[in-house]
Prior knowledge:
The chain is mostly helical. The protein has helices at residues 28-41, 61-83, 100-106.
Amino acid sequence: MGILNFGFDNIELWRSQEMQLVQLMIPAESAHDTVAALGDVGLLQFKDLNSDKSAFQRTYANQVKRCDEMARKIRFFHEQVEKAGMAVGMRAVPDKSFNMDELEVRH
Length: 107
């Protein structure tokens, strides 16, 4: 066992290894879950097909803004709960994942 052991004992990840370029056509509604699952595998390299676009021109810019707004709301509620002297507890992460539309409607 070497000094740097990343758990890839049976896998060669060097550039000299044979690679294939593939293009996946994934429906927008399942793209996030698909890319997350592929990323968890850890054996893929993604190629940015929109490198010519700025961050504000990309299709996910509105989702990032929505996430920032949701994070701002959560910070605000957390501060209000602390100001009221209420205990802030952590809950277990639910098995079900929520999309932003569901979370925005819930508040």
